[in-house]
Write the C-alpha cells for this entry.
Amino acid sequence: MSKLPDPRTIIAALVIVSTTIYSAYSPWFVCTLGGFAAVMLASAAINPNTLVRPSWVAVYLATFAVLGGLVFVIPLVWKSTASAFLMLFLQWMWRFSVSAGMGAYAIGVIRPATLQKALASSRIPTCFTIPISVALRVLPVIGHEVKAISDAMKLRGMSVLSLRAAQYFTIPLLSTVVRSGDELASAALVRGLGGTAKPTSVTVVKFRVVDAVILLIVIGFAIWRIVL
C-alpha cells in the first residue's frame, strides 16, 4: 500500500481528466488521455494490494478501442443526418470510457480507511468524510449481494428480467443494505467516529514522488487543453 498514490492525488487526477476530456475537440488529446488511463489501470492491476484485475484493463482497452474505431470509421463510410447524431453519441461515449477507466482505477486503489485519513488531514469536516467512507464500504457488499441473489434465482429457474422476479430480487437486496448500514453505523460508534476527540489512525498518508509525477502529468494535460 505504501507505493500507491495519495487518495487526494487520485481524486485530483480523476477530476482534471474528466473535466478536460469532455471539452476537448482533438481526437489525439482523447487518445492520449485514454492511454494515460490505461497505464494507470495496468499499474494497479500488477499491484496485489489493489482490487484492480487484468480483466478490468482488458475491458477498458477493448471498449476504448472499439468506440474510437467507430468514431474514426463511421464518418468515412456513412454521411447523413442519422450518422451525425450517432457520431455525437459515440463521441460522448468515447470520452466517457476514459472517465470510467479513471473511476475504476480510483475505486480499485483507494481504501476507505486511507481516504478517510487523507480527507481528515485536509481539514474536511467529518460530516462529509464519514458518509463517503460508509458508501465505499457498502458498495462492495451490495455487489456481492446482487450476485448471490441472482445466482439463487437462477438455481430456482427464475429469470432476473421478469416482473415477478423484481419482488424476489429487490426485497432481499434492500434488507441486506439496511442491515449492512446498521452494522457500519455500530462499528463507527465503537470506533468513536462523530465524537469531539480527533480519532487516530495507523494509516500513513503523505505526498510521494509518484504523486508529484501524476500531478505533473495531469496538469500538463490541462495546459495542453487550454492551448489547443
